[in-house]
Every structure is written in C-alpha cells, then in structure tokens.
Write a structure and sequence with these properties.
heterodimer; A: 114 residues; mainly beta; seven-stranded mixed sheet; 11 strands; 50% strand; B: 112 residues; six-stranded mixed sheet; five-stranded antiparallel sheet; 0% helix
Chain lengths: 114, 112
C-alpha cells in the first residue's frame, strides 16, 4: 500500500502570496493532521481533521486554514505568507486521529518564503 | 498549554558508545510516543508507552515511561552509524485525545 503522499515537495513563494499544500492519507485512514516543522525544532500541531470535520487547531493565526475532502485527502492553505512561514509542512494520517494512534507522516512540503 | 522538553539538544558519540535522550512534560501524560527523523526525512514512529513505569525494548533501544507519567527516556546501547538522526518524543495529556505535542528533539550524530 502507498504511504502518505504530499505535494508539492518543494515550493518557493514571496511574502504576501498564498500557498496550497496537499496531502493524501494512507488508504483506510480517515484522519489527517498537519504540522509545521521549523528547522531545528519539533513538529508543531496546526490542524487535525477527521471525517471532513476540523477536530482541533493549534496556536496558529487565521491565515492558516485547511479542509478535508470526501476521499479523506486534505489541503492546507496559508494566506499572506510571512518569512517566518518558511518550514517543512508535514501531513500525518491515522485511522481515527486519536493521540494513542501511530502517526504516519508524509515526506513533507518544504516551503521557502522570500 | 502543555510543554514537552527534551535534553540534550545535540549529542555526538563514537560508534559503539551508548546514548540517552530525556523527555519531560509540564503535565501528566496519557501516553508518550517516540519518533525518529533521519536527516532530510520525515518522522517515523518508533514506539508508544502508556503505563506508569513502563519499559519497552526494541533490539538496542530501551524506552522508559516515568512513574509519574511526566517523563520518559530513550537509551541506545552500542550506537551504530545507522542510528544517526533526530529523536523526538511526543506526548498527549488527558485534556486532549487527539493532539500530540512534540519536543524539540535530540540530534544524534555518530562518528564511525
């Protein structure tokens, strides 16, 4: 079975632009979580979606939004990009999104904001 | 909010030496997970601990969960070059059954 896939792998944007990142979970997984990982830091929770509903949100501004589609894939949108948004954006899938479940991470999207 | 701290931030060892990283939470944890991230890669799940005082072993890796469920450790015996990477702990407290809070990680480098 295919693992978690994310696209694009790399992205360069300028300040003020917006970006859409995509994630496809492992087949059968209904929950997707998004994390931001700044260089030298651990992944920081942004959102979790389960069955197309937002279950939780981390301490991120409203410029960050996400959604989950009927096929359980997900998009993360970031508006009005700032230099500080440069990071590796990770998507993790799990069966139902419980914190006791293994999180299967995708390869990530490396975003550079200039 | 919940904070998870890891020490040390970096550790460089000679191949064959042991390595330990420690994880401490500001709150009592329901469970703790450990992940490994190779340079340029993504986090990969290693193990989960749930019970107070729990000890689990995976070959040369030994994981412990503290009696108070606020701290954990990962010990690697006789490191190998394949152990290189960043080791993260991630915990969940009772107030949230979906959110994992990651520590900043410990970067392990091994000199052959």
């Amino acid at each position: 079975d295919a693992g978690v896939t994310q696209s694009p792998t790399h992205l360069i944007k300028t300040r003020g632009q917006h970006v859409t990142l995509r994630c496809s979970p492992i087949s059968g997984h209904k929950s997707v979580s998004w994390y931001q990982q700044v260089l030298g830091q651990g992944p920081q929770f942004i959102f979790q979606y389960y069955e197309k509903e937002e279950r939780g949100r981390g301490n991120f501004p409203d410029r960050f939004s996400a959604r989950q589609f009927p096929n359980y894939s997900s998009e993360l949108n970031v508006n009005a990009l700032l230099l500080g948004d440069s990071a590796l954006y990770l998507c993790a899938s799990s069966l139902v999104g419980g914190s006791w479940e293994t999180q299967y991470f995708g390869p990530g999207t490396r975003l550079l904001v200039l | 909010g919940q904070q998870v701290m890891q020490i040390p931030q970096y550790q460089h060892v000679q191949e064959g030496e042991d390595f330990t990283t420690y994880c401490n939470s500001s709150t009592t944890l329901s469970n703790i997970q450990w992940y490994k991230q190779r340079p340029g890669g993504h986090p990969v799940f290693l193990i989960q601990l749930v019970k107070s005082g729990e000890v689990k072993k995976q070959k040369r890796l030994t994981f412990q969960f503290g009696e108070a469920k606020k701290n954990s450790s990962l010990h690697i015996t006789a490191t190998q070059t394949t152990d290189v990477g960043t080791y993260f702990c991630a915990g969940s407290s009772g107030g949230s059954n979906y959110k994992l809070t990651f520590g900043k990680g410990t970067l392990l480098t091994v000199n052959p």
